[in-house]
From TrEMBL:
<feature type="active site" description="Proton acceptor">
    <location>
        <position position="34"/>
    </location>
</feature>
<feature type="active site" description="Proton donor">
    <location>
        <position position="174"/>
    </location>
</feature>
<keyword id="KW-0479">Metal-binding</keyword>
<dbReference type="GO" id="GO:0005737">
    <property type="term" value="C:cytoplasm"/>
</dbReference>
<dbReference type="InterPro" id="IPR013785">
    <property type="entry name" value="Aldolase_TIM"/>
</dbReference>
<dbReference type="GO" id="GO:0004750">
    <property type="term" value="F:D-ribulose-phosphate 3-epimerase activity"/>
</dbReference>
<dbReference type="InterPro" id="IPR000056">
    <property type="entry name" value="Ribul_P_3_epim-like"/>
</dbReference>
<comment type="pathway">
    <text>Carbohydrate degradation.</text>
</comment>
<feature type="binding site">
    <location>
        <position position="7"/>
    </location>
    <ligand>
        <name>substrate</name>
    </ligand>
</feature>
<keyword id="KW-0119">Carbohydrate metabolism</keyword>
<dbReference type="GO" id="GO:0019323">
    <property type="term" value="P:pentose catabolic process"/>
</dbReference>
<dbReference type="GO" id="GO:0046872">
    <property type="term" value="F:metal ion binding"/>
</dbReference>
<keyword id="KW-0464">Manganese</keyword>
<protein>
    <recommendedName>
        <fullName>Ribulose-phosphate 3-epimerase</fullName>
        <ecNumber>5.1.3.1</ecNumber>
    </recommendedName>
</protein>
<dbReference type="InterPro" id="IPR026019">
    <property type="entry name" value="Ribul_P_3_epim"/>
</dbReference>
<dbReference type="InterPro" id="IPR011060">
    <property type="entry name" value="RibuloseP-bd_barrel"/>
</dbReference>
<feature type="binding site">
    <location>
        <position position="176"/>
    </location>
    <ligand>
        <name>substrate</name>
    </ligand>
</feature>
Length: 220
């Protein structure tokens, strides 16, 4: 089943609650929440207080993408704020296995994200412990960038790796994904689609309908 994960980084924070309701009513599966620390990535976004606040009025699955150095320091805080899935960057973790174990001990789903230049073989000894791998299709840090074409073959290779290792993982893709190029990532094997700009620009409900139409042929 293909899932849509709208990224609130592209939302209008002045009416965030209302926009999340629209996403929920349009039946997106996840809410993608980009946390940036100004160190691992150049920009700073938001953190636990915002998540705790929107958690009160949403039943969506909170898919928290931590672009944070040594996220092991904050796993418990993000759980308490309301995260359901926590994805950490392999490049930001000195002790990746320990970090993933802590996410799981907290009863959450665990994901690992890879920057565009990070090879898949860094996952070889951890893949069976994961619920999700996030293949970044842009360099993390900002919304509204263009998908890097070389990441398409990486998604394919990830799918093959999951089959070869018999790992039952979701493959999430994130960055520059639009209605016009979503077929490419779906054909490559992704099944969780993050989209910020293309969901929030214009009519949110209609944009989600368009994404879901595209997903139909891959769901059979
Ligand atoms: O993690 C990130 C960026 O670092 C993403 O989740 C973006 O927020 C996606 O936004 P678009 O590229 O779809 O505008
Ligand atoms: Fe993200």
């Amino acid at each position: 089943m293909i899932k849509l994960a709208p990224s609130i980084l592209a939302s209008d924070f002045n009416i965030l609650g209302e926009q999340i309701r629209q996403i929920e009513n349009a039946k997106a599966e996840y809410l993608h929440i980009d946390v940036m620390d100004g160190s691992f990535v150049p920009s700073i976004s938001f953190g636990m207080p915002l998540i705790a606040s929107i958690r009160k009025n949403s039943k969506l699955i909170f898919d928290v993408h931590l672009m944070v150095e040594e996220p092991i320091r904050y796993i418990k805080d993000f759980k308490e704020a309301g995260a359901d899935i926590i994805t950490v960057h392999t490049e930001a973790c000195t002790h990746l296995h320990r970090t993933i174990s802590l996410i799981k001990e907290n009863g959450l789903k665990a994901g690992v994200a890879l920057n565009p230049s990070t090879p898949l073989n860094s996952l070889e000894y951890i893949i069976r412990d994961l619920d999700m791998v996030l293949i970044m299709t842009v360099n993390p840090g900002f919304g509204g960038q263009s998908l890097i074409p070389a990441t398409l073959s990486k998604i394919k290779d990830m799918k093959e790796m999951a089959i070869r290792t018999e790992a039952s993982i979701d493959i999430e893709v994130d960055g520059g994904i639009m209605i016009s190029n979503v077929d490419q990532v779906l054909q490559a094997g992704a099944n969780v689609i993050v989209s910020g700009t293309s969901v929030f620009n214009g009519d949110i409900t209609q944009n989600i309908v368009e994404f879901k139409k595209k997903f139909q042929q891959y769901n059979s």
